[in-house]
Amino acid sequence: MKTLFVLLDKEFRQFFRNPFMPRMVLLFPLMIMLFMPWVTTMDVRHINIAVVDQDHSTLSGRLIQKIGASEYFTLAEVSEHYQQSFMQFESGAVDVIVEVPAGFEESLLQNTPDKLRITSNGVNALKGNLGTQYTQQTILHTLTEWLSEQGQSFPKESITIENRYNPTLEYRYYMIPALMIMLLILLCGFLPGLNLVIEKEKGTIDQINVTPVNRFTFTLAKLIPYWLIGFLVLSLAMLLARWVYGLIPAGSLGAIYLAAACFILTMSGLGITIANGSSTMQQVMFVMFFFIMVFILMSGLVTPIASMPQWAQFITYFLPPRYFITIMQSVYLKGATIFELWPHYAALGGFVFAFNLLAAATYKKQM
After folding, report:
1. How far apart are CA 34 and CA 243, in angstroms?
2. % of the chain with per-residue pLDDT over 70
3. What is the pLDDT of residue 367?
4. What per-residue confidence (pLDDT) applies to 323?
């Protein structure tokens, strides 16, 4: 433990002596959180829809057929009970629920229509908004077509829309947790690797190589400072989200920080592993940039995973940000608990073990 504390003291001294890194830790979150929510956009494909058919009429059958035939939708489920579909909705397997009440066709013919309800998932604000619009347009077109065949017109007030978890579908509320993840990827992935390779370039690591410090103590000393820095950056980002945008986590802070602890250690372990195999700063930056681009583009941070080809969706299971993104958005907007998200926490725990064991194993003393 004494050796570890000495190494930690060295790491913190080295960090604060660098004129660039402390400024980056403070200024980068400010720039990302204050500007990116206003300029980030997103595309959407393959909206999962569940239809609750309590009418069992010719009209409800036509609605189901139209939804299933649309290129924008994936008909995930047809059931008779709303609660059954809502369980799929809460798990994230369904984006939109269309509920056709009993007697809906007959009420339309009598010009006293019952309310047809559309429930959308507002955790992904853009997908929820577009999903609602696409669904509403499809239903309106189908009902108008059917009623015209009956010689009647369709009263639009017979559709009611409910947005769950993000009632206003504010896109910034969806993007802000994603930006926090991006901050942790960039800072906690890049900085440990850069710090280690700077020591290599300056030759100061040779002083460690001639000591009896083992590889696990050395790796732990490299991880802990950036683990604490990651918590600082996340806390600053959450405070800015509250003060500037009024966004407060619906779930517990403990669930967020537990996931963040695992994710920060994972990204730091990856950065150290890459630095162990690199001899210059340019090598670390190029390799880390490759991984970071894959993480950002393929983990659901920018592009919905459901919009990707099947082979790409399979690859995302091996990307740590996929699980952290799900946890952050579910806890922040839905108020999900650790128990509900335990498979994602377990996956992050596995990545922590694998990446940091690899970081320790690839560190080789050269005396």
Report:
1. 11
2. 80
3. 43
4. 92
User: Cβ(104)–Cβ(114) under 8 Å?
Assistant: yes
Q: What are phi and psi of 96, to 5 degrees?
A: -140, 140
Distance of CA 318 to the CA centre of its chain: 14
Q: For residues 270 and 196, is the Cβ–Cβ distance under 8 A?
A: no
Q: How far apart are CA 252 and CA 140, in angstroms?
A: 40
CA 361 → CA 214, 356, 365, distances in Å?
A: 11, 8, 11
Residues 75 and 45: their CA atoms lie apart, in Å, by 13
d(CA 67, CA 63): 6
Q: What percent of the chain has pLDDT over 90?
A: 11
C-alpha R_g of the chain: 25
Predicted TM-score of the model (pTM): 0.61
Through-space distance between the first and last CA atoms of the chain, rounded to whole angstroms: 24
Average model confidence (pLDDT) across the chain: 78
Pairing, β 116-121 against β 47-53: unpaired
Extract the tokens encoding 226.
Answer: 């950036």
The answer to the question of residue 275 being in a domain is yes
Taking Cα atoms as reference points, which of 291, 288, 319 lies closest to residue 190? 288
Quote the DSSP letter at residue 156: G
What was the pLDDT predicted at 133?
Answer: 72
**pLDDT tens-digit map of 108-156:** 777 776 777 888 776 655 566 666 777 777 877 787 787 777 776 655 5
Q: Say how far apart CA 186 and CA 288 lie, in whole Å.
A: 9
**Which position has the higher pLDDT, 41 or 49?**
49
320 and 217, same structural domain?
A: yes
Same domain, 51 and 18: no
Token pair 């909705």 in the structure block, residue: 89
Which CATH number characterizes residue 150's domain? 3.40.1710.10
- Separation CA 129–CA 203 (nearest Å): 55
